[in-house]
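haha ok so turns out i had the wrong file open the whole time. this is the CORRECT one, sorry everyone. sequence first:
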Amino acid sequence: MTVYDISDGRIKVFFDRIPDEEIRWAMKHSGFIWNKNGRFWHAEYSEEREALMSVLLYGKKVRKMRSIAEVAGKYRHICWYPSAGMDFGGLYFLSEEYYKYNNVPLDDGQMLPDLFIFTDVSPCVPMNEPEKSGAGMEELKSGKTNLRYPLRDLICDYTVKAISVEKLKDISDMIDSSFCAFSEHESYKGKAYYIKAVFHKWSKFEKTVHFIYAFGENTLFARDVLLKEHIPVEYAIQVRYGNAFGGSYLRGDWYKHITGELGCKYFISNRGYMECDDFFDRERTAEFFSGHGLIAPRYSELYSIDGSKWSDYGDVVWYKLDHSTP
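then structure:
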């Protein structure tokens, strides 16, 4: 699908494939310039240029570029998995099919996610193959080949195949370049995609799933997208906790302390991480999330699985959250 965006006094056009020669010629002679790094056409905005674009693309499926909030606003039960890398296991473990097949107890009134949001600063690749940075996402975006999770195949044996990929408005102001060292060929910095895909695990499980993948720092995404745009997060996942989880601003238990502000009802995490007394800088976190409450909820265990089924960080536990004041 071809999409366009109008912001900061400019119009940008993103084609899903190389446009015909006559379209390229017309755009060049109307003042549009090709941005090789961003892979889009752009020019100073004018009504004439927007009208010209509509004429050139008449008969083609064109949509004005949407923001993450515009897409997420159409869903009621959202799950957020920060620092997800290419781990799409939540699409399986938080599905009606998995719950039914494994007799997972549903909490009273519980509705499973209808949209997943994954965030990370860059596509993850096997540690011994750094030259393939971004290859997993490129494979997923192409929709031509199944993407198999590259880091732990024996644990998460599944494939994901994109049906459609819609580019969303950039979130480039949500990455501190001094903290995140992107290589010159890295084209994902600050990008966001809305993806519809077929998730397949063994021969027993196949379903269509919807998710957003945004490349930005977790803390900035929480503050400047989820909280600022009032996007409620019903499920929070943290099964691959690492030292860079808080990005360039925070570290430690900040995630647990904003679940109330996000509206989280359920938290899925490793038992070992939940039981450890991790560092929490309340003053710095309160300053970063100024205007938002920082109260750690009470947790009650609903369900657990052996870590080897999903995460190499130990047993994974489903918790129900209680945000009420003791």
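Residues 2-65 form one domain.
again sry for the mixup
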